[in-house]
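Title: Request for sanity check on Glutamine--fructose-6-phosphate aminotransferase [isomerizing] prediction

Description:
We are preparing a figure and want to confirm that the structure record we downloaded matches what your pipeline produces today. Could someone re-run it with the sequence below and paste the raw structure tokens into this thread? We only need the token string, no images.
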Amino acid sequence: MCGIVGYIGKKEKKEIILNGLKELEYRGYDSSGMAVMEKENDNIEYFKAVGKIKNLKEKTKDFTSNGQGIAIGHTRWATHGKPTEINAHPHYGEYSFVIHNGIIENYKEIKEDLEKKGVKFLSQTDTEVIVYLFENILKTETNPFKAFEKTVEKLIGSFAILLITKANEDKIFFAKNAVPLIVATNENNEILFSSSDAPIIGMANDAMYLDDGTYGEAEFGKVRFFKNGKEIHPPRKALPKDRNFAQKEGFRFFMEKEIYEQSDVATETLMGRIKNDQIHLDEIDLNMFDGINNIILCACGTSYHAALTASYLFERVAKTRTKVEIASEFRYKDPVLDKDSLFIAISQSGETADTLEALKIAKNNGLKTLAICNVDNSSIVRLANNVLLTRAGIEKGVASTKAFTTQVLTLWMVVLYLAHIKKTLSENELKNEVKSILKVPKILKVPDGLQDKIHRLSKHYLHGHGFFFIGRDVFFPLALEGALKLKEISYLHAEGYASGEMKHGPIALVDERLFTIALLPQNILYDKTRSNVEEIVARDGFVFAISPKEFDLSDDFIKTSDQKHYMCEFFEMLVILQLFALEISIRLGNDVDMPRNLAKSVTVE
Ligand code: G6P
């Protein structure tokens, strides 16, 4: 997730871009850059810096831009290529500059084609192809805007693009698909572009939130929008007055926003990694799995729950022996490590001290390593031999939501990749798995009325003497995650338990003041789990059942949809558990985004 801003007008452009990027820093900040072109001087000045916006500010301190002109700026959250200055935006060709948020899925094909025509690429990004493709088309198409239109037609994937070119000095060309782009105009004839409304609040009263497939051209005092070759007039919407509110994109809390974002980030996680019913993980060595007979998954906190979930899939689907380790335990247990094990470290931040140390131990013992991580260039990413970025974008809520979702999705892809190599699935079975994984973004969309329903029933759970979240198979780690979410932000005592284990002790706690959250998927062990829940009902426990099948015995019930794969049920139930924790925390008046005693990134032992 990156942030982009653009400006056409007479004010000092550098300041507008820097202020705008500062507002978008929450979308990612591993590097940033800007390009500015003034009307009387058709030179394009550009600047790039690694790290936060303050570094770009420092780089541009001696630069001013007066008079009418155009400017574009970008803050980056790396998905293709390391966060270096070369990979920072804007990317440039011979006389044009581009900034981009999203992923160009077919960039490899475009790149190969352009390389054959003699183009030399500087960066490792997918973005750079846009600017060279544009300049290449402009060799035969004399109208720059038409060339831009043809460029956009060739792009597959998600993008918000701003492009400026000396071939048309007054204009910004723009295009939008699957990621946000907002355009605003004001009475001073200024034109403003942004990924979210925060940067333009105070500079315009309303804005146009573009639909997918919209592109166009803007110059001082004038913007034209097109879709499928026809001019359109997007509706205007009033801008919010409060910046802080705008950063949360209308949500009250970052955690809430991040729950709602899961569908979009899941699309990014999958993008470019699934083609023709197969998983393509181009980022990892082709021979990573050569000689591997065992997998060790290692992590902390929520990432540990992603590891536990994946362990079921590695064994069932890829028929590979898998162990899961809590990083802080692994460090000191003098583990026996064999070279035929692949060590997979899972971490949102890439900085968790215990996971980092565990990874070092694995590496020092000569194991192949893979990091599943959300933050490029983090310590864990730098250390591991292979890396898969989860592409969740910056996660602000301390209680992890979208990072977990993207970790599980990424691990599921690794499982299918391995299953393909080891031929543990028939072609048809693999096709079905891929079909199911592609459904996940849609499943993660919070349905209308769900949060309201959870809000209403959450009032039943403010007292009592504790919670048991129960499930079987992958729904056991999901139960653990549901319990962790709740305790992190509600400070109520909650445990996740394997349904079948309740009878071996915890059932002694059951009475009408003990809450059981029962996960009852239809595609895996329904009858067995149901029997376990009935044992709790029989002892007068308070039961909240989540299932696609009606369950009359429960006190509260949420009916999930009729999915064909248990992992699809997993993701649907995950959203319910996240919202459940959120609603209880809100009712209790807690600080949802910054719960007491916790930290987002734990860099100490
Ligand atoms: C902290 C966070 C948790 C997170 C855990 C592991 O405890 O509060 O939300 O799951 O660290 O973090 P990592 O960045 O390694 O996934």
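Thanks, this matches our download. The pocket of 6-O-phosphono-alpha-D-glucopyranose is lined by residues 300-303, 347-349, 352, 355, 398, 400, 598, 600-602 (CB under 6 Å).
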